[in-house]
């Protein structure tokens, strides 16, 4: 099914856009995208989950079709935005609705954790989709300004929509389809002379990166009382140094949760898959999210 495009207005007047799929009576799911992405990133997953579950996927503030105010890019503010979307859909403790399962990708994983910390009764489970358990400096080996610079697209890629889409397709031609083209188109807007530019402004990226580098995963994960699933993209082998560091970070997260008396996290590895699990492993990812929701 195709999603409906919806908007909820915050108390400050900002509008947050979200995609909504009608589903069955199973627990509702909330899908939170990563940095510089949009809700359309989740299109392959929403399609698969919607027959059994009601699903929403918001555009974080400053991203996609949501408003981009000058402030409010701390993780707590982003989480409150999404909790407002949850309440608008009739879910969560603010409206005496059912709790939701939240899946977050990258930055979205940190937002999902913060949602569970702020409103435990609104969040029944959290899926960390290749993010949310590592310190950013250790995960990227970059300082914040270096990461912002590394994320900038080369001018030749933005010369036209065709060149931009070709670049995205060539990441992995086998996984390129209509859903991926829709998601890619949503991340840019057409400018003068056919050029395209990112929808997410550099100033927004910088503010979000600052929030991400301030995230302390061990403290945050120890606070979360609900079920947690880690969905780990593992493009490298276990003897790769970066991969070893990621595995150690998972062990550290398990340890602090045990010390805090929290449930053990379920860990699933997607061997040979890159960071964008929604693109590379949509079937497997959808099954894991459905299993978490039904648990």
Mean pLDDT: 95
Give the strand order, joined by hyphens, for the main sheet.
1-2-4-3-5-6-9-10
What order do the SSEs take from the amino end to the carboxyl end, as H and E?
A: EEEHEHEHEHHHHEEHHEHEHH
Q: Determine the number of helices (DSSP H or I, runs of at least 4 residues).
A: 12
SS class: alpha/beta
Number of strands: 10
- Portion in helices: 40-55%
In terms of per-residue confidence, which ranges show pLDDT below 50 for 5 or more consecutive residues?
none
Rg over alpha carbons: 18 Å
**Shape summary:** globular
- End-to-end span in angstroms? 25 Å
Q: What share of residues are in beta strands?
A: 15-25%
- How many strands, what sense, and barrel or not for the largest sheet? 8 strands, mixed
What does this structure look like?
With 295 residues, the protein is an alpha/beta fold. Helices cover 41% and strands 18% of the residues. The strands form two sheets. It has an eight-stranded mixed beta sheet with strand order 1-2-4-3-5-6-9-10, sandwiched between helices. Helix 1 packs across helix 12 and helix 2 crosses helix 3. The longest helix has 19 residues. It is globular. The two termini are 25 Å apart.
């Amino acid at each position: 099914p195709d999603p409906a495009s919806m908007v909820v207005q915050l108390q400050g007047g900002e509008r947050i856009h979200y995609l909504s799929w009608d589903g069955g009576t199973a627990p509702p799911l909330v899908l939170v995208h990563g940095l510089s992405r949009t809700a359309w990133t989740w299109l392959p997953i929403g399609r698969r989950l919607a027959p059994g579950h009601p699903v929403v996927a918001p555009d974080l503030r400053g991203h996609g079709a949501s408003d981009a105010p000058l402030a409010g890019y701390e993780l707590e503010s982003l989480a409150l935005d999404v909790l407002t979307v949850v309440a608008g859909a009739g879910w969560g403790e603010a409206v005496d609705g059912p709790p939701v399962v939240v899946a977050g990708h990258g930055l979205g994983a940190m937002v999902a954790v913060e949602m569970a910390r702020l409103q435990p009764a609104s969040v029944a489970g959290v899926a960390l989709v290749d993010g949310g358990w590592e310190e950013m400096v250790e995960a990227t080996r970059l300082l914040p300004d270096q990461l912002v610079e590394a994320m900038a697209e080369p001018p030749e890629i933005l010369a036209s929509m065709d060149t931009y889409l070709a670049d995205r397709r060539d990441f992995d031609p086998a996984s390129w389809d209509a859903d991926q083209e829709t998601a890619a188109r949503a991340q840019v807007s057409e400018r003068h002379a056919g050029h395209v530019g990112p929808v997410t402004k550099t100033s927004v990226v910088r503010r979000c990166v600052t929030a991400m580098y301030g995230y302390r995963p061990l403290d945050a994960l120890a606070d979360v009382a609900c079920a947690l699933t880690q969905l780990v993209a593992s493009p490298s082998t276990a003897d790769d140094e970066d991969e070893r560091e990621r595995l150690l970070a998972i062990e550290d997260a398990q340890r602090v949760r045990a010390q805090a008396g929290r449930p053990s996290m379920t860990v699933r590895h997607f061997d040979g898959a890159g960071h964008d699990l929604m693109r590379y492993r949509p079937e497997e990812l959808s099954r894991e999210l459905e299993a978490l929701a039904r648990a």
